[in-house]
Amino acid sequence: VKNIKQAEFGRREIEIAEQEMPALMALRKRAQGEKPLAGAKIVGCTHITAQTAVLMETLGALGAQCRWAACNIYSTLNEVAAALAESGFPVFAWKGESEDDFWWCIDRCVNVEGWQPNMILDDGGDLTHWIYKKYPNMFKKIKGIVEESVTGVHRLYQLSKAGKLCVPAMNVNDSVTKQKFDNLYCCRESILDGLKRTTDMMFGGKQVVVCGYGEVGKGCCAALKAMGSIVYVTEIDPICALQACMDGFRLVKLNEVIRQVDIVITCTGNKNVVTREHLDRMKNSCIVCNMGHSNTEIDVASLRTPELTWERVRSQVDHVIWPDGKRIVLLAEVSCRQRSRSCSPFSACGGRKPAVTYLSVFSIQALALIELYNAPEGRYKQDVYLLPKKMDEYVASLHLPTFDAHLTELTDEQAKYLGLNKNGPFKPNYYR
Asked: Does 49 show up as a binding residue in the annotation?
């Protein structure tokens, strides 16, 4: 970690996060007597924030041993990493790692004498990729993978299709509570906060193009529209495209608006969405940022050429200047590795999304780990699975007391009429 002396400060941050994460704390209280993860050796690669620390300490309370690295080179809160290390968690992460540091940290998590992981918790698929590449024999003892990002899930489905996925995997990215809370509501709040903190701009009247109208794109568009921005959307999926139109957004191709927009935001999980050609055609002072997980959406590498000048304005903000004096504002460091967490702190002390909307995915991850670890042999084959709807509903129910919300209960007659169990699940697995 960067500085172990910051541990006390990090511990205070974790304690604050605990107050904002009642669902995970309730799960910890309910399950710690049973120790459902006793014997589990979990290797994790996620954002290391105060909320992640609450998850890790919950997994520890449920009986697991954990080793952790960061999935993003800019989002680590150094003080939180220090607090975790001081309390006995092997953590390998610091804010501002180089690419080599990033892979070194993952390797130190995995490659340790006398310790063999039997569960993987991944965000983006880099940890899973590294084990496949360097230590494939480890999968003989690994019982399952839990993956939370679009990028990582895509990689898992590719492995499954190729017949190379040798353990069961749980796709928690597509659980409803993760999609709606972490992706939609969280990004709806964090996009404005991140842009304000890095650029001090006003949004009223600004022309913005949001690439992708999935849950993240929907959240971004809703926030920007509410602030008075003129919002365009690009999309490849006709269903998402139609949703954008019905929500009042103009559906365009990026080439049609690239010369006039003030802000370009990518939310696709794809590669080369914004190319050098697009960057060349942008207007002066156009702001470019990425809300997706990986650094593939914007072709930043193409800007590292002799004719362009790079100017560091402040942390997380660079000007890229063309020979004629035109400049674009590039956010989240030079590689655009996920602006949403690294640029958008909920408080002044670090990079994270609002805990109250961010916590659902941690509860889901904990339940998914418990499910895969304790599943009888044969329940899950070497494939990618969605979290059962019953667990999705359970995670949502854990949040309701926070809002003093009271569920209506079905009568026996109503349950029979609908053909449902009174305790759920209330919707089929395919219901979104």
From this structure: yes
